[in-house]
Amino acid sequence: MKNSSPMENGKKKRWTVEEKAQIVRRYLKDHAGLADLAEKTGSTPGLTLQWAKQALEWIEQTFSKEIHQQGKVLHREIQEKDDRIRKLKSVVSELSTENLLLKKSTGDLSAGPTLGRKRRKRS
Fold first, then answer.
1. What share of the chain in percent tops pLDDT 70?
2. Which end of the chain, N or C, is surrounded by fewer C-beta atoms within 10 Å?
3. Nearest CA to 27 among 42, 38, 16?
4. pLDDT of res. 5
C-alpha cells in the first residue's frame, strides 16, 4: 500500500479490488485501527468502514450451497459446450479434407472455396 492521499493529481483515487480487500482484511482480521490504517494506506476511516460493510453484506453468499451448486452447473455447461465445439471442429476438418479429395479426384482443383462468390458456368 502506498502512503498517499485519497486525491491524486486533483482527482479521486481509484481503488482496485485488491487494494480494497487488503485494507478490509487488515481492518477486520488484524484489528488495525481506522485512523492508523487510513494514514498508512491513504484511505479514509469512512471509506474503510463502507468497504467492510459491503464485504459483510455478501458474507452469506460465501457459505451458500446454492451459489456453489450454480458454479458447478455453469462449469459443467461450459465443459459440455467446449466438448461440442471440439467435435464440430473435427467434423469441419473431416469435411474439408473430404471436399479437397473429391476436387482432386474430379480434377477440379482450380475451384477454391465457393463461399461468397458465384461459380462461372463452363462452356
1. 80
2. C
3. 38
4. 52
CA 122 to chain centre: 52
Helix (H, G, I), strand (E, B) or coil at 122: coil
**Residue 4 φ then ψ, to 5°:** -135, 170
In one letter, which amino acid is 87?
A: K
Element (H, E) at 12: strand 11-12
End-to-end CA gap in the chain: 78
Owner of C-alpha cell 473431416: 94
CA–CA–CA angle 115, 119, 121 (5° rounding): 170
Rounded to 5°, the CA angle 31-32-38 comes to 145
Q: On the CB side of 13, how many CA atoms lie within 13 Å of its CA?
A: 18
Q: pTM for the whole thing?
A: 0.46
